[in-house]
Write a structure and sequence with these properties.
globular; alpha+beta; 6-stranded antiparallel sheet; binds pyridoxal-5'-phosphate; about 300 residues; about 30% strand; D-amino Acid Aminotransferase, Chain A, domain 2; 2 domains
Amino acid sequence: MASDDQRIDYAYFQGKIIPTNEANISIKTHALQYGTGCFCGIRAYWNEKENQLYAFRLKDHYKRFHDSAKILMMKPKLSIEELIEITRKLLAKNEYRQNSYIRPIMYKSALALSPRLHDIEDDIAIYTLPMDDYLDINNGLKCKVSSWIRITENMIPTRSKATGGYINSALAKSEAILNGYDEAIFLDHNGNISEGSAENIFIVRDGKLITPSFTDSILEGITRRSIIEIAKNEMKIDIQERTIGRSELYIADEAFFCGTGVQIAWIKEIDKRVIGKGEIGPITKKIRETYFNIVTGNNKSYKNWLTEVY
Ligand SMILES: Cc1ncc(COP(=O)(O)O)c(C=O)c1O
């Protein structure tokens, strides 16, 4: 393998795998002008012992990608199976032997004026990069309920993972960071808890795991779904997908974010209220441990969630 500074990095662009620095689009591109695209964030985990790179739940990510495209009136040029195969090839071509991140994007590629969805050609690109932790997952996050409200179903559907919708996330994230917090928590248009800037949220109360439901302006997170399955199968604990009021966060015993980027990150403080005992709670800890065992290929019962790259 070439050393990091000499390494040529490859991307999938306009139907081919080419050097990433040659994968460029015009300034006239519709998606650049109007945010008319949708994307995925996927992780692959390196298992040193097995000399294997495991990509996590590719089929589920690409099913959501296709669903997002449908909402945004795009016609994917690649099937879910083709997307999986290209992703595997790309990771192998990039010779990753470390934890990595995969960013597929489907975007309105026509050089067309006027913000609309119909009759505009689209294309798919995929790039990858090495990635370890995106937020601190060990020390507990200090969070702020955002003054920005989460976009709703009838504005920009959060279910569609639309590129333009991430302006909403960026506003909240910057507000939180510039005010000395680690992450923002959105309320929805009814004043109830929605999600973080790029992650879903769970709380624990009296041994029950609680998370906002799909109608609370959230992305249908793959990690969220995985945690629900883990909690049901491995821990036999009660799960509630329901509305959460803002003050319910403050009195939760535990709270954590989950998502591909953030993985599982426990929350220490929200709006200056310490959550639980101010340390990682037992349920969060168990879920985090089980999740990392699964994604790294060390829990063989969940092998069907993983795609082997090599
Ligand atoms: C707004 C938002 N919510 C939730 C998530 C978590 O989704 P997933 O677990 O599928 O990565 C993400 C990250 O992709 C996100 O951007």
